[in-house]
Amino acid sequence: MNETSARAGGSPPAGDGLARADRFSQVVLPYLADALSLARWLTGNAADAEDVVQEACIKAHAGIAGYAGGNARAWLLTIVRNTAYSWMARNRPRAVMAVGDLADLDEVTAVHGGVVDMGEGPEAGLIARANAAALEAAIAALPQPFRETLVLRDINGLSYREISDMLTVPIGTVMSRLARARGLLMSELGERHA
Amino acid sequence: MHDDGLPRDAEGMRLMLNALVDGELDAAAALAVERRIAADPALAAEHGRLVALRGAFARLPAQMPSDDFLARIAAIGRAEAAGAVPVASDEVRPTQPLAQPQAGARRPASAARGGAWRLTARRFGGQDWRALAASMVVGAVLASGATQWLMVAGAPDSLAVAVADGHRRSLLAASPIDIVSTDRHTVKPWLDARVGLSPPAPDLAQDGFTLIGGRVEVVANRAVPALVYRHREHLITVVAVPQDKGGVVAPADLSAEGFSMVKWSDGAFGYFAISDMERPELDDFVGRFRAAAR
Questions:
Q1: Which of A183, B56, B59, B259 has its CA 20 to 30 A from that of A136?
Q2: Is the pTM above the cut of 0.80?
Q3: Does A158 touch chain B (CB under 8 A)?
């Protein structure tokens, strides 16, 4: 309980709290659905996602003064992502270890996965008819860095530049991960319905 | 096909196709890629697959926060404003199971106190009224915030303010829509029966904007139809206010922090589109809506 009382003792005057609450409701609340989706795809399930987002929102609230304008969604999602990884390191140390070295993964898949000759891909119609469950299963099966990049773009709607800033990787890496992730999804969805 | 500045290798072109679909290319590059697509069936097929995949994403069910969760998060902002301390996640949802006291065993005082605290925290679910009350206050602050930015952003536009407040309310409500249907032939008669008006409700699912339903908004003491579209995780509310004076007005920007808003008119209706999407995406939606409704 020490932490609690320390925080209570250090709480700012009520006026500041009100301004913060106002800002919190404008910067954080509109993007809760985005935050939940990202957390869900990073942690793998909806219940853990709520825990992660709640923790992230407490951090966002505490650090709201650090929000310097710009894209509030990207700002919140950055906090959610960092919280998700520290949450997973705390709650499932082994799962995080299993992700392995990201640089290796980019190399490996450049040779083996995701690169199909464009002429031989599945019919667009098969992909268009894929149901939501099939798509979600295919997303869940993606390697973590690909899934993360794909979700930030195709579900959260961030731009390449924003993703590059968030993941601190070059735009070229964002683009190749995205293209590979989609390549894997397209062949998976095409096969499943063939 | 002379040097058009595009990559020569298949992998490079694949990235360019993705960038085209993502709207990340400027007009010149997009034009060059489109020319290549027109000339190369393999590229065209890959492009078709990417567009199809985007359509599949648009149909994924949105993960909307539950009321309970929304109330908990809103309470974080409220708690401090009231001088209290936000409830930490571990206290609300203990990750450790409660220590099971042995029958008749003596427990150290600290453990007993910790247990009691956790028990109280655990009963948070039973105290929803508090979180709910908190979220209502936040809702009010939020709505007044919306009002404020619209006043600051331009000439006071009471319609726009009412529309923005309606959209924000709908995000906090249990459901943002009263009639759930992706079929415009269901939504239009429903609205017609309630408000005697039925604005165009184009089907934009192919473009990634799925009509998910409609509701009735009260704007300036008048019941008006509202359509709700979904794009990925984002809801777009389109409110159509019937006009007497007519005249076509090009889209005008009313956006401010947190929300994008565009208004335009087609002579019969004045439209307001509001969403938490980025402005360019909302513009894209408005462009498609106007083209399809014509």
A1: B259
A2: no
A3: no
